[in-house]
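Annex B. Sample input.
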Amino acid sequence: MSLRPPAAIRRPSSNVDGISHELSRVSSDIGRNEQLDSHGQVLLSNEWDKKEGWPVVAAGSATFFVYLGLVYSYGIVQLHLADAHLASASTLSFIGSLGAAMSPLMGMIVARIIKRIGYRFTAFIGSIFLGLGEFTAGWSTQSVPAMFATQGLLFGIGAAMLFLPAATVPSLWFKKKRGLATGLVYGGAGLGSAVIAISLEELISVTGLEGALKILGGMAWGICIPASYFLKAPSGSARAVSSIQW
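Annex B, continued. Sample output.
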């Protein structure tokens, strides 16, 4: 009578050993040429740092040039509104603060919009709202509620819908040069703040505050609408809109 070892401690068959060895070999081959993202999806190494990403960087930088340039130059607008005795300094400050605060306040909403319609169309709608808020503010300088609706609400909605695409899409195209790409995008904000703030005072002296706001609105449309066309994610679900989570 012979005793057989329990099934639980039997040595695995050679077929199982062969399959395990083959899986290990395939995984090693994949690891040399590909990279897994946080969702377990495979990214080919040659999909990163392509030249097609640089127009996206330029579009993000141009968007930040306008958006943050207008946000940071609102102090000049506020000064002229205060000189016209439209409202108290605190009330006028709140108008500008509302426009600037809409970006973080609407962050989760904008992320859901992007997941539904994509980066490009979200940025396009944001460009319309941003320019519309600035342009219609040119007819609202005699009314505090109208300034809240235009310079505050409309401008803020546009800023919120532009910020997330402009801030995130360029980095999706790069891996080794991601720091450079991000720096160039945010560099547009600093340049816009300086250029718009310096030129706005001269523009107001020539056209008046109302005319200057209308010109700034037209500038926002002229720069941000074309730039929104280039704010698109690279192909592949691993780096596309579906990767946004909150």
